[in-house]
Recover the amino acids of this structure.
């Protein structure tokens, strides 16, 4: 397999993206994209209605008399801000730990001989196939034995997987794209492993590292099942859990729980925008190089 | 590519991740399998009861209903999701103006937090005031008792899952972009229409990837129904119309504090899922052999 600047190969593939831009594609793509946007649009549209009013019987998307009352109501009903802070605390710890664990593992995989490396890849792929349901009871038993129920430890623990084996594999692929020569030069200069990680791998694969950080944030912020199972004290609840409680209060008062949904979703959307800027910027930089 | 003598360093770097894999995936798997033969309510120490849990599962109407629901969900949702992922990929993979905006839109439902996403549908499927019934009434198809009729509730859960095909979409797009352009140029020369191109070139060459997607989807249906069934239908119109196995496991374990029983249910479903995946593999293998017979 040829080594060398693999990122430029990816670049070329992007330029050569197959398929011709037929007009029919736009004709199909636009309604499809709109359809996919509907959930978010309905979330926003529903949240700006006044709480408790009888809803209209027409599927109007832009309500007349948009108001933020439902947001006020949602914030008054439950300590959503406190719960958002809790989610932030968990994310603040999870994200750096995830990035470190994942990038270390990725660099380790790059440096392993072929056989052990393949084993780690296979194990990672298998781990990816395991759904949460399969390990939930087992994890609960383990955390209970460790005496960390009702703390944030079980919520942060997935950071030890880099939040997901997929992110580890992603970084492995990115670190592999860094030219071999750079690693060799670092070795010759006598740099230790950690120095190589800090000065070669991380900086040169920074778009992927940034993307993993953002994805880890999204995963941590949106996580619902773990807080549901491990947290009992309502003061420790994270935002998704609080959102569910909000909906349970009154399942028919949709503007209020949709307002809560928007509050829960906004940080994720912001993270996505940041990621697109990050990856778009890196692509522009590659094209200019 | 290896640096002999660097293995120590590599191993050190890999250590946290390997610990994570062990503590969070391997050990819990083993513990779940072990707990399945015990009875445990968190208060008293676990009590061994052999195959009793499994016997009880076989007689448990709720579990049987949950298995039936999960199986019918798989039968309906997996093909639909695969079709959606491939369809999206075939339309959006090409270079076009605004292409990245379209692709981002397609990924958006998958990115939304589960709970928020489910609550939107709670509103959309509201039988009296929700947009879905409003639109259906306007079209003359009449309002549907979404969350109060068993079959409609199941259909609602399936519909919710069809929108979250983001990962499948990305994988399918990557697979589509790997199909060599020359084949399509050849097809163009041979005057093959779009349908033929899809049938003879696109789908067969994306085949292995699609198979993997199908496998993965079957396994993940064990997880993907949890939040919708918990938040939107609550296990769904009585009795248990949308209680799927993940919800059953959650309730038995975390609400009724029967962790051994829940573990046995988990184990049973894993075995069933593995059987389904294996069955899929066998079917596709026969189908591929048939395809490879040259047509003259």
């Amino acid at each position: 397999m040829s080594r060398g600047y693999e990122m430029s190969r990816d670049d070329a593939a992007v330029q050569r993206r197959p398929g011709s831009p037929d007009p029919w594609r736009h004709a199909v793509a636009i309604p499809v994209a709109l359809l996919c946007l509907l959930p978010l649009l309905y979330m926003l549209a529903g949240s700006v209605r006044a709480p408790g009013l009888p809803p209209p019987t027409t599927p109007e998307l832009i309500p007349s008399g948009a108001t933020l009352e439902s947001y006020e109501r949602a914030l008054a009903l439950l300590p959503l801000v406190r719960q958002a802070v809790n989610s932030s605390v968990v994310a603040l710890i999870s994200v750096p730990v995830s990035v470190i664990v994942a990038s270390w593992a990725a660099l380790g995989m790059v440096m392993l001989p072929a056989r052990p490396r393949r084993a780690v890849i296979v194990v990672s792929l298998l781990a990816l196939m395991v759904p949460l349901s399969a390990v939930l009871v087992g994890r609960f038993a383990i955390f209970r034995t460790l005496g960390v129920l009702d703390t944030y430890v079980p919520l942060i623990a997935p950071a030890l997987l880099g939040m997901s084996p997929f992110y580890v594999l992603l970084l492995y692929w990115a670190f592999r794209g860094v030219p071999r020569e750079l690693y060799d030069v670092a070795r010759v200069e006598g740099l230790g492993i950690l120095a190589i990680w800090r000065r070669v791998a991380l900086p040169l694969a920074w778009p992927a590292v940034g993307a993993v950080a953002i994805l880890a944030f999204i995963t941590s912020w949106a996580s619902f099942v773990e807080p549901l199972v491990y947290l009992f004290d309502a003061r420790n609840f994270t935002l998704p859990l609080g959102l569910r409680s909000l909906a349970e209060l009154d399942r028919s008062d949709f503007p209020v729980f949709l307002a809560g949904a928007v509050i829960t979703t906004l940080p994720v959307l912001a993270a996505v925008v940041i990621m697109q800027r990050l990856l778009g910027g890196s692509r522009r930089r590659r094209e200019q190089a | 590519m290896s640096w002999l003598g660097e293995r120590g360093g590599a191993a050190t770097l890999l250590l946290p991740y390997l610990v994570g894999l062990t503590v969070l995936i391997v050990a819990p798997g083993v513990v779940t399998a072990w707990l399945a033969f015990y009875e445990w309510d968190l208060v008293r120490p676990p009590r061994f009861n052999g195959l009793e849990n499994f016997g009880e599962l076989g007689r448990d109407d709720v579990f049987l209903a949950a298995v039936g629901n999960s199986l019918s969900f798989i039968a309906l949702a997996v093909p639909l999701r695969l079709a959606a992922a491939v369809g999206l990929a075939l339309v959006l993979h090409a270079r076009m103006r605004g292409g990245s905006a379209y692709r981002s839109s397609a990924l958006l439902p998958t990115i939304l937090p589960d709970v928020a996403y489910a609550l939107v549908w709670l509103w959309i499927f509201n039988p009296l005031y929700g947009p879905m019934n409003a639109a259906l009434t306007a079209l003359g198809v009449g309002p549907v008792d979404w969350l109060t009729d068993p079959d409609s509730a199941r259909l609602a859960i399936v519909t919710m899952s069809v929108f979250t095909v983001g990962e499948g979409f990305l994988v399918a797009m990557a697979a589509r972009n790997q199909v060599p352009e020359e084949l399509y140029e050849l097809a163009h020369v041979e005057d093959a229409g779009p349908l033929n191109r899809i049938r003879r070139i696109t789908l067969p060459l994306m085949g292995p990837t699609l198979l993997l997607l199908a496998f993965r989807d079957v396994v993940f249906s064990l997880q993907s129904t949890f939040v919708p069934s918990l938040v939107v239908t609550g296990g769904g119109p009585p009795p248990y119309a949308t209680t799927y196995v993940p919800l059953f496991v959650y309730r038995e374990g975390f609400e009724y504090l029967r962790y051994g029983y829940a573990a046995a249910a988990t184990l049973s479903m894993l075995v069933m899922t593995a059987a389904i995946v294996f069955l899929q593999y066998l079917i596709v293998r026969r189908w591929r052999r048939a395809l490879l017979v040259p047509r003259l």
Remarks:
- Residues 3 and 10 of chain B are 9 Å apart (CA to CA).
- Confidence is low (pLDDT under 50) at residues 1-5 of chain B.
- Chain B has 14 helices and two strands.
- Strands of chain B lie at 38-39, 47-48.
